[in-house]
Structure formats: structure tokens, C-alpha cells
Amino acid sequence: MSVIRSITLVTAAPLVLAVAGIAHPHGLSASTASDWARLHIALLPVFPLLTVGLLVPLWHRPRLDLAGFATVVAWAGAFVYAAFYTGLDTVAGIAAGTAVEHADKTANLGPIKRPLYDTGEALGQAGAYALICAVAATAVALLPKHGARILPGTMVLLAAGWSFIDSHIFWPRGVWTMLGFALGFALLAWGTGRSAPTGKTGMLPRRHAGGHGAGR
After folding, report:
1. Who's near 19: CB < 8 A, 6+ residues apart?
2. Prediction pTM value
3. Phi and psi, residue 106, nearest 5°
4. In the chain, which residue ranges form alpha helices assigned H by DSSP?
5. Cβ distance 96 to 145 under 8 Å?
6. Which of 72, 88, 126, 132 sees the fewest Cβ atoms within 10 Å?
7. Which residue would you say has higher pLDDT here, 1 or 171?
8. Cα–Cα dist 102/83, whole Å
9. Distances in whole angstroms, Cα of residue 86 to Cα of each of 48, 128, 151, 166
């Protein structure tokens, strides 16, 4: 896969989320409840795709070394993020929006929304912390092969991940957070898409034509 194709692939999800963040209602009320629920339904399959930005550069079979162990940790962190952040969207997004939309017009919305918000926030924060751990593990996995080229993208992703803990995709900080993810993933794809430095490449050496493996 070319570097340009990789960058396109890894930036698609955060860019879509950035655009959605501009349209995201700033608060949940009777007048915004329908849009609130529908937007979170539409974004349900998009949030887990943030992990594509880590899975693309880690697309190889883990070796039995530190880099291989870090790869598995990164995969696990990406899975935990996808599961728990989907929980946030489901509870604080779809469920809260649906509950408010169908609440009595004279009802106090605070007691309806607050338990769902609290549960969703706990799930979302767990997912965001798992994503940060996945970013750090990805850096450990890629550093031996690609060296310092992966550091700019890693730094941007760690900053975006920290902001993501409490920004979601709300304008303005949440939108900038998604753009930060897009930039970080692009830098990581660029850093890992170039030729590896001389030394350990993570690939098994090819057999020479005249060696013992010839003719097999």
C-alpha cells in the first residue's frame, strides 16, 4: 500500500468525526433530542474506526520480542477503546437522546439525562485512556524498525488522546481534537511508509539462490 493510500485510509475517520462535530448539538434538550440521537446512531460505526490509524502501521504478524508484545498490547488497547467508546455513544448519545425525545413536555430533564451522562462519561473515559495506551504501545512496537520518524506522529496523537478524554467531538475543542488525530495518524503513516533504516527490518532474510533453500 502506498504512503498516500495509507494516509487517506487512516485520516478518513477522524476527518468525518471533525465534520460531524461541527454539526453536533451543543446541548441535549427537547428541541435537539431527535438530532442528538440520530447523529450518534450514524456515528456508531465511525468512532471505532479511529483505531485504523494504529492498525495500518501495525499490519504484520507480531514477533516474539518486545516490539511484538507491544503490538499485541496496542491491538488490545484499540479493542478496549472501540468497545467502551461505543458504550458512551450508546448510553449518553442514543439512549439519552431517545429518553429526552419521548419525555413528558413538563418533565424535569435533569434526572432523566444525568444518570445516562454519568454512565456514558465513565465508559468514554475508559475508552479514551485505552486509546492513549494503544498509541504508546504502537510507538514502542514501531520504534525499533522506523526510529525517530514515528515520534512526531506519536506526540501529536498523545496530545489529541489526552484532549479526547473530555472533549468528545464538541465544537470547538472536540473538532480540533479530531483534526489532531488526523494529523497524527498521517504523520505516523508517513513515518512508517518510508524505507526502513539499515538494520533490523522485522522481516526474515531471503535465502540466496545458491543457498540450502534453493529449489524449494
Report:
1. none
2. 0.85
3. -95, 0
4. 3-23, 33-43, 52-55, 66-88, 96-101, 110-146, 151-167, 173-193
5. no
6. 72
7. 171
8. 27
9. 7, 11, 29, 15
